[in-house]
Amino acid sequence: MENEMTLSFAAISENEALARMTLTFFVAALDPTLEEISEYKTVISEAVTNAIIHGYEEDRSGIVTVHAALDGREVTVTISDQGGGIENVEEAMQPMYTSKPERERSGMGFTIMESFTDSLSVDSGQEGGTTVTFKKKFSPVQETCSSVG
Amino acid sequence: MAENCRISTTFVEYKESGKRPLNYEPKGGIHMNQITLTSGGIVIVRPAGELDHHTADSIKREVSRLIFGGKASAVIWDLGSLQFMDSAGIGLILGRMRDLGAVEGGTVILNPSPTMKKMFELSGLGSHLLEGTQEDAIKRLGGILHGK
User: Fold this and answer.
1) What pLDDT is recorded for position B83?
2) Which of A47, B14, B32, B123 has the lowest tally of Cβ within 10 angstroms?
3) Is A60 annotated in the active site?
4) Tens digit of pLDDT for each residue in A107-134?
5) Domain B32-145 indexed as CATH 3.30.750.24
6) Any CB–CB contact under 8 A between B4 and chain A?
7) CA–CA separation, B6 vs B30, rounded Å?
8) Which principal EC class is assigned to this enzyme (chain A) (predicted)?
9) What residues of chain A, 106 to 125, have a C-beta less than 8 Å from chain B?
10) Structural domains in chain A?
11) What is the ipTM, given to two decimal places?
């Protein structure tokens, strides 16, 4: 383990941007490509939004915790809440599935997260609390500047 | 607090005959979302900064109001200035497509980033994507709206 961090914050939608920004700074030294960082931010945003909207039903007293660890060029991120839990994880991960159609959720959150990560696991149950863990490996830095002449 | 939010929405409504916008007060600098209604009944939404669950609501309210008020029958989502979008953006666009369902309107998603493009394609919205100018998007909508 080369570096690690933990961030906890209230389940308020403003904090979605806080989580994205903090975790972007955490991997900045790896010099990821624009597309890699954009995908990574999207996955964090999806998981944190799920915790706020589904886990805590936007109860502002809930706490979302994000932990990240760097090992070489691979980051492992865990987003956890102590909220309502997902009754049927398999069903929730189906494309277009949403438990809140009235809230304009697209139902694409987990599909997008799976597509933008190297591995994704969701641990939840009726007893409450959800933990989403994902791994993403950033490509090696390309040498783009070569001396001329 | 909403009043301190850097991402603000300004509604720009063009006069039927002219090109000068009404109510145009740039307040939000580079992070301003812009919603424009053309005289042809097309809403052009140009979000800026970051579009997530927190910021999608104000755009939703304004665009739905124009559609249900009978002023708009098509939407162009010009994503060229958008730095980030998560699935809240997909929900926002799908929701307005549902609003438009009643008026048989069209939807064009203009100039998304490569990451956004992947998300739209995963969500089955690939056929609405277009690389080009707002004029190109208006031309395409002309074809859709007139059944060409």
Assistant:
1) 95
2) B14
3) no
4) 899 999 999 999 999 999 878 899 999 9
5) yes
6) no
7) 9
8) transferase
9) 106, 108-109, 111-112, 115-116
10) 3-137 (3.30.565.10)
11) 0.88
